[in-house]
Amino acid sequence: MSIDIRKTHSMSLEDAQQVADELAADLAEKFSIEYGWDEDTIVFERPGVHGEIDVDEECVHVRARLNFLFTYLQPAVEKEINRYLDEHFQ
Questions:
Q1: Domain ranges of the chain
Q2: Does domain 2-88 have CATH number 3.30.310.80?
Q3: pLDDT for res 31
């Protein structure tokens, strides 16, 4: 199963990266996910879950792959990502 969410924004790249980092921290706290930056991409994972948050001047793109045992998390993770993006990226 996979998650693929895009949200356009009008922020500076630096501000968008800061908000994306806060999103990753929020996901880490709620879903026990480890994360870190690899250039302009946040990489996050936990056993059974691997994903990226790409940030550029126009868009934030969140992708995640969940193995079969973690498909039950998909609705909760998607809901949290969409809530956060709608709240912080305008």
A1: 2-88
A2: yes
A3: 83
**How far are the Cα atoms of 17, 33, 68, 71, 89 from residue 21, in angstroms, in the given order?**
6, 13, 27, 24, 13
pLDDT for 14 equals 94
Q: Are 7 and 59 in contact (CB under 8 A)?
A: yes
pTM for this model (two decimals): 0.86
Residues of the chain with confidence (pLDDT) below 70: none
Residue 35 in contact with residue 28, Cβ under 8 Å? Answer: yes
| 12 close to 55: Cβ distance less than 8 angstroms | no
